[in-house]
Amino acid sequence: MRFARKSVPAAAVSLLLAAALTACGGSSAGGAAGPVDHNAKVTLGWAEPVDTLNPATTGNRDVGPIDANIFDTLVWLTPDFKVTPDLATQWQVSPDNKTYTFTLRQGVKFQDGTPFDANAVVANFSYITDKSTQSNIALGLLGPCTTATATAQYTVTIGCSAPYSPLLSQLGEPYLGMQSPAAIKQYGKDLGLHPVGTGPFSFVSYTPNQSVVLKRNDAYQWAPAATNHSGPPNIAQLTFQIVPTSQARVNQFQSGQSDFMQETPGIFWNTLQKSGRYTAIRFPISGMGIFAPINAGSWPTSDPAVRKAIEYAVDKTGAIKVADDGVFAPSNTPLQKGMVGYDPSLENEYSYDPAKAEATLQAGGWTKVNGIYQKDGKPLSITITAISTVPEYPLIAQAIQGYLRAVGMDAQVTQLATPAWLSANIQGNMSLTPLQYIAVDPDALHLWFLPGQYFNWSHFTDPALTALINQGQAEPDQSKRLAIYAQAQKIIMDQAVDMPIHENVDLVMTSKKLTGLQYSGGGFEYFGAASMSQ
Amino acid sequence: MTTYVLRRLASIVALAFGISVLVFLIIRLIPGDPALALLGTNAGDPALVTRLHQQLGLDEPWPVQYLQWIGAVLHGDFGYSYGNQQSVSSLLAANFPATIQLTIGGLALSLFFGSIIGVVAALRRNRATDTVAMGFALTCMSIPSFWLGLLLILLFAVQIPIFDVVGGTSLKGLVLPAVTLALSSIGFNARFVRSSVINAQQQNHVINARAKGITAVQVFRRHVLRNALLPILTIVGLQVGQLISGVVIVETVFSRPGIGRLLVQAILSKDYLTVQAVVLIIAVIYALTNFIVDLLYPVLDPRVASR
Amino acid sequence: MQPDTVPRTAEAAETDTVLPPVTRRRRLIQAFRHRSLLAGSIICLVLAVLVLAAPLLTSADPNLQDPLSAFAQPSGAHPFGADSFGRDLLARVLYGGRTTILASLSVVVLGGVVGTALGLVAGYFRGAVGFLIMRLVDLLLAFPGILLALAVATVLGPGLSNEVIAVAAILVPVYARLVEGATAEVLHLPYVDAAVTLGASPWQIIRRHILPNVASGIIVLTTSWLGIAALWIAALSFIGLGVQPPTPEWGAILYDGANYITVAWWITVFPGIFLALFVVGVNLLGDGLRDELDPTLSRDLGRA
């Protein structure tokens, strides 16, 4: 799940980073890179099970990168969030910001031979919005823009019921990858077992819990210009081997059974990097990072003093040290550094200060009895829920628990499987819960802080905040949007309904032979321009 | 005999029915709404939630849901797993081979080493060899399998990388999981075989044969082994059930694909139809194995047939 | 992690048939039995003393986080090393033993009491209720143990007490089967039959005649299941359904270490050794007790 799993990449902040990436890939130090092997079969140690390969219905972050290599999207989102041509060569937005007209690339064919044209785009929109499709992330990315009309063979118009500024960037996420209309028609519910796109690799096989195999699409001549690559990929075959246990993934990589490993656990990231035998790549994941919504809807975190005390009490650097061997930078803002909407002025709103945490509690009328704060005879008990199936969250939860106990809050950790975790958070039976949320647009905030939203796990409503977030969604002007989101984030932090914990980064280790790895905005690994040396 | 077979078959059907009701009820008691997890970011839309509940059949009363499910199962249709977005049958088809490979590997190892250790211990009864063998057997039974798996990974992952430590259903990848799975059964079988052999040795015709001056080896082969191996058949039946429990752990520790991991995931994500299908099939396999073992008994031992 | 039941059938048969010819050998067996009883008792006793004396053996707080000691290797300061939170592993293993051992004892007590009660009711009163109970028992016995435990643990939610209930659920049918069989047998004894005719109340019959007859069987079953219970408790914690952090428990510590085993072996190795030792000790004790107590009764265990 996109919000629930610890995972990958997204927005490279700057060109600088992209350059660094190319440098470390392209000229791999040590001169290990020989001539390009055009028959290379690359094995990747993949961290999460696949729910389905169908981009419209998947709910998994980690399916995104697999799909990014099977499917092309209308636009290509660069790591620094520039919207550039892909299957669409150009586009226009109507003056009322409600209609987008895309001119499509010609001569593109799906891997099953079906030609790509305006009707194919229309078929995809109908499929995603169809009531009988179990659409997931894809549907949310479209927002109010759910109608597509073919106005010419290679011209398609997308209509929105309200202005929706996030649309263009979100069209670049692989969940909106274009599927073959013939396949949609033929396979119905089993579409996920037969993915057919226009991308650089075509589907070979999928064995649940084991692997996904893709092979080079030899007809591929339409790589996005921004990737600086033309023609079919250099790599002949990609095998995503699903290895959820991190130690097993490391073993697989170290013993040479894989050429690429994602979600490298912190301690191994440090030791493997020291060995100097591999290429280490940090993929920054845009969105809200790893954070914990703090529940303002139920006692005791309904008391702002308690929420602020929590923000002061937790030493993020220490928590990252124990949970991830210190490999991540602490995060202090709702929208992540490098992401559109990041506001550096919030960095120092709360810094680790246990004395201030206690002072805040005392000022709020709490008194310490036998080492635990209490008010009106009730002890200050905090419940931290954590998803039991992803190792990182229980670790972070325990670290937070340790710091809260240290200042006199009676913190308990409850590890739950996903369905139970969801219902606990929705019903507000928790004080806070660590998680991630991935997004390419600052509009991410609306899911988490608008009244009535399913993910409003802060159970918090503020009319000014609601107005700002709604305004930001409709505002086409980028600089005005930045100002709006800065104000919105200020409210969120002042009210202490979000505790940012650390940056969200996918730590990827690869063999030095693997070079030219790229990713699109949002952090989706792209192998279309990568190569393996002999 | 025919009546016996029919009665046994009827009891297996009754058992399968009971199991199907039990698993149906248990999975519904697990807290949380699976539809919310399936809808992800769209779970805030009540219309979508209602629609998915309809698609999942969860809007019907439980008895109706049960009858619909069991009716379809009787026609060979295990339904559709929304969590995995494919039919349960194709999920089973994709996961069963790896588990069968692992189970057979484990069973073979445990029978082979269990028998050898057991026979040696019995022949060297009450001597040092016996004590060592039985101590070893007890240790095998006492070591937590998941811990052993981790130690094997530690040893063979980086230190002595001769076996694959991850996933794969190759023979190289099978060794460590199969050893882990087999270990406690090896101990169990060794003790069982030792007792069976000793028991057989004590029987009158064996003692007579020995008195007649037939060599020990001949006695062992002709009389003891034959009588001792019969009871071993029983444990094959019993062990299928136990190995299934082990499979859940071993597949998790070694990141192997298979029914065990599928089941844990399905339980944790409340994937009703997958859990129901897997549990039902496992229970039926278990019951059938024991049934077949019981049928084989009289074939191998005429004394049982005459009863 | 398997119910060690079948060997008992054969071992019991063995004791029946190892008859007169060799009293010398019998003495040897006796000695061996005592040896396993002795060894088992010593191991269990030592472990019990170690976990009970934890505060005397280490001054470290098992839950105290110390980022500076994260992954500290075994040394004077941390004899067993430290985990990723910098928590002292010796303290965690010792205090964790309390959790694991107490939970295992609770499992056999809970499973034993409920199972025995069900078995008594089914065996004594028979009829529709008895029939229903025993069919349910058949059902549960055909249900692979791990599924039952996983399902119950997921239904009840996480936590130590729920984990105990989940594992006890595997045990209930085993006890019920044993006690039901024994009860039915005892009821057929002439003097019991006579007592029933003379109007003794069910409770009197159960207390005076049935319980004493099944007691040794229950004791044997309990010892042999104690080790299995410990393995189950640890296994469930290992899957993440057990104790909640930061409570130490052997299986949970193993789980903590599983993701670091090639860089911090001590987190996995030490609790595993203790767990294995405990199970070995309990199993030795069980073997010894089984041979000492009525072996014919233990034959019934084979059916479980």
Structure, explained:
The complex is a heterotrimer of chains A (about 525), B (about 300) and C (about 300). Chain A has about 525 residues and is of the alpha+beta class. Chain A has 16 helices and 25 strands. In chain A, the strands form 8 sheets. In chain A, strands 8-9-10-1-11-21-12 form a 7-stranded mixed beta sheet, sandwiched between helices. In chain A, helix 9 packs antiparallel against helix 11, helix 10 packs across helix 12 and helix 15 (about 465-475) runs antiparallel to helix 16. Chain A starts with 14 loop residues before the first helix and ends with a strand. Chain B is mainly alpha-helical and about 300 residues long. Chain B is built from 13 helices and 2 strands. Chain B has helices at about 1-30, 35-40, 45-55, 60-75, 90-125, 130-140, 145-160, 170-200, 205-210, 215-255, 260-270, 270-300, 300-305, and strands at about 80, 85. Chain C has about 300 residues and is mainly α. Chain C has one domain: MetI-like (MetI-like fold), CATH 1.10.3720. Chain C has helices spanning about 5-15, 25-50, 55, 90-125, 125-140, 145-155, 160-185, 190-195, 200-240, 250-260, 265-290, 295-300. Chains in contact: A-B, A-C, B-C. At the A-B interface, helix 4, helix 7 and helix 13 of A face helix 2, helix 3, strand 2, helix 5 and helix 7 of B.
